[in-house]
Amino acid sequence: MTPANAEAAQLYGEDMNEYVTRVKATVEDSWLDPKDRARSLVAFPYRLGA
Fold first, then answer.
1. Which one of 8, 41, 43, 44 has the minimum C-beta count within 10 Å?
2. CB 40: neighbour CB atoms within 10 A?
3. Cα gap 3→33, rounded to integer Å
4. How far apart are CA 17 and CA 6, in angstroms?
5. What are the domain boundaries of the chain?
6. How far apart are CA 40 and CA 34, in angstroms?
7. How far is 34 from 4, CA to CA, in rounded Å?
8. Do 41 and 32 contact (CB within 8 A), yes or no?
9. Residues 8/48, Cβ–Cβ less than 8 Å
10. How far apart are CA 29 and CA 2, in angstroms?
11. pLDDT tens, residue by residue, 2-44
């Protein structure tokens, strides 16, 4: 497992609401233009896999 996957697995088991919030944010970020994505990661550095 990569650290991002281990973190996701732990969060999934411990805090489903936070897990869903982060997954939604990560998916929505994937729809953004790369410049907008970079700004989003600065504002929300906890994004899964970031």
1. 43
2. 17
3. 26
4. 17
5. 3-43
6. 10
7. 21
8. no
9. yes
10. 21
11. 656 888 888 889 999 999 998 888 888 788 777 766 666 555 5
Calpha distance 23→29 (Å, rounded): 10
Measured CA distances, 47 to 10, 18 (Å): 14, 11
- Which phi and psi (to 5°) does residue 45 adopt? -70, -5
Task: Return the axis-axis angle of helices 34-43 and 16-30, rounded to nearest 10°.
Answer: 150
In total, the chain counts a number of residues equal to: 50
* Residue bearing tokens 């233009």: 33
Q: Which amino acid is at 46?
A: Y
What gap in Å lies between CA 21 and CA 28, rounded to an integer?
Answer: 11
Return all residues near 18 (Cβ < 8 A) that are at least 6 apart: 11
